[in-house]
Design goal:
The protein contains 12 helices and 5 strands. The protein is mainly α. A hairpin with a 5-residue loop joins β2 and β3. The radius of gyration is 20 Å and the shape is globular.
């Protein structure tokens, strides 16, 4: 069993100070993704009126003023490291909360809040092990990873956290957690020995479920971009036009207009179609990223959207698509009023 070492806040900050901004953002995205996965797996809010809409993390929380990001706040005004976004199933009202105010503002049972905090603590321990490995001089195993990629070792593992974490950390040269490193080595040795694995029906179902979870998380980010558009005074007609243009952009150069609008639909599609639908949803996310990337209103969300695209090896081109330019003009006109 791995020895678990918990860093103090000061020890964690001392190591984080040694990292480049892109490395800090990659760690932040790893933490956010791990927490989102817990929400979808444990269904923390199923007995409440609230549904989980997303989570934003301030990777620069310890540096209150001297950092390149934007501060996050609870609806009560308190500055946050982890901002949870909840939506009422009955009224549609949205809340932006820290974990300590779940009970006060959303009447979520204290027991549920404790379970969520325990999940955050477990993820922080995992992150601490990565920071300690970095401090000890370990870096990302590029040669092993590239061999696995070239040999298509991730072909049936693209829905796994391992694949996405490797994509993130390989870009910024962060070491993997020991368990992730061992899993990557296992894949490497299997490929070296010429071992090929045919997916079972159970594995296909699990992979499709993983892809559906990824799709759902990307969809939540798109929802938050649309929420920002509504906040800044765009009309219903403007919002509808931007959403339609985002779909047109996502479906460019595809032979079919089929597009999933609810993650539950994934249970009825093949694995090939599931992969295709995730690619479409990621391209739709890149539409919103391009719309907002020159706008200070959504810097934190744009940073996270970039990390998501990196994690899925999806590009974010600088497109001249008319719908992107149109949305930028609409947003700018409302923002400058």
């Amino acid at each position: 069993m791995d020895k678990i070492i918990a860093l103090t806040r000061q020890q964690r900050e001392d190591i984080l100070q040694q990292l480049r901004p892109d490395q800090v953002q990659a760690l932040s995205e790893f933490t956010r993704y791990a927490m989102l996965s817990r929400f979808h797996t444990h269904h923390y809010l199923k007995q409440t009126d609230w549904e989980f809409q997303g989570m934003v993390i301030d990777p620069w929380y310890q540096r209150q003023h001297d950092h390149p990001g934007d501060n996050l706040y609870c609806d009560c005004g308190r500055r946050l490291k982890n901002q949870f976004i909840l939506r009422s199933r009955t009224t549609g009202r949205q809340l932006f909360l820290g974990i300590s105010h779940f009970q006060q503002h959303a009447s979520i049972p204290h027991k549920v809040a404790r379970e969520i905090q325990a999940g955050i603590n477990e993820i922080n321990l995992y992150m601490d092990s990565i920071l300690l490995a970095y401090q000890a001089g370990r870096r990302f195993p590029q040669e092993i990873f590239q061999f696995v990629v070239v040999q298509q070792g991730f072909k049936n593992h693209e829905g796994t956290i391992l694949y996405q974490r490797c994509n993130l950390f390989s870009q910024v040269d962060l070491p993997l957690h020991q368990r992730d490193y061992q899993d990557l080595q296992t894949l490497y040795h299997q490929l070296k020995q010429g071992v090929t694995h045919r997916l079972t029906k159970e594995e296909i179902k699990q992979l499709r479920d993983d892809i559906a979870t990824d799709w759902r998380q990307v969809d939540q980010q798109i929802t938050m971009f649309n929420y920002l558009l509504r906040q800044h005074g765009l009309t219903v007609q403007d919002l509808h036009r931007i959403k339609s243009n985002s779909i047109n952009y996502a479906l460019q150069r595809r032979k079919t207009r089929f597009m999933i609008h609810d993650y539950k639909q994934f249970k009825d599609v093949t694995l090939t179609k599931a992969r295709s639908q995730l690619a479409i949803k990621l391209r739709q996310l890149s539409f919103y990223l391009q719309v907002f990337q020159q706008n200070g209103l959504a810097k934190v969300r744009c940073d996270q959207a970039r990390q998501v695209l990196i994690a899925h090896k999806a590009s974010c081109p600088q497109s001249h698509f008319y719908g992107i330019k149109e949305a930028q003009v609409l947003l700018k006109s409302k923002y400058t009023i």
